[in-house]
Amino acid sequence: MRRGKWGTSLFFALILLLVLCAPAYAEELHYRLITDPAESARGAALQLLQHLASGDIEAAAAMSNAPTRRYEVLRDYRNAVGEEEFKRVFARYMAPANRLVMEAAIGRRRLLVWDLSEAGNHLAGQYYVEVDGKFLLDDEPTEERAKLRRVLEAFRKRTTR
Prior knowledge:
The protein is α+β, with helices and mostly antiparallel strands. It has a single domain, classed as Nuclear Transport Factor 2, Chain: A (Roll), CATH 3.10.450. It is built from six helices and five strands; from the N terminus they run αβααααββββα. The protein has a five-stranded antiparallel β-sheet with strand order 1-2-3-4-5, sandwiched between helices.
């Protein structure tokens, strides 16, 4: 059977597309959904958000696995938006309309996903890591954290369809 010029070109275009897309489909993200409060980072998240909503960046930074860097980031953000806006941004997480919709785990790391209804149902993610039996804000780049970021992106895509 004779393939025309277009048939051969189409065949090679499909092969190229498969090769380019294969890595995206090859990696399957494996994570656990956290439903047991004893395994959850929710308590640490709420404590952190209370510190931020009151403007206490020192206490919030102390809840990070990179406290000096977290303090600098929070200080710079507060300086950029002002004290009252800084407090308002973090207080909104605790508003009744906003809620935690998912917690995922990969190893010792957690992703908490918040549905911020008052912000157009924006899905915000927070990353935590368990260290010595307590959860800290995860400010260190790791492969597990990168995978949790992809979990958040996939969750956002599924939810916004």
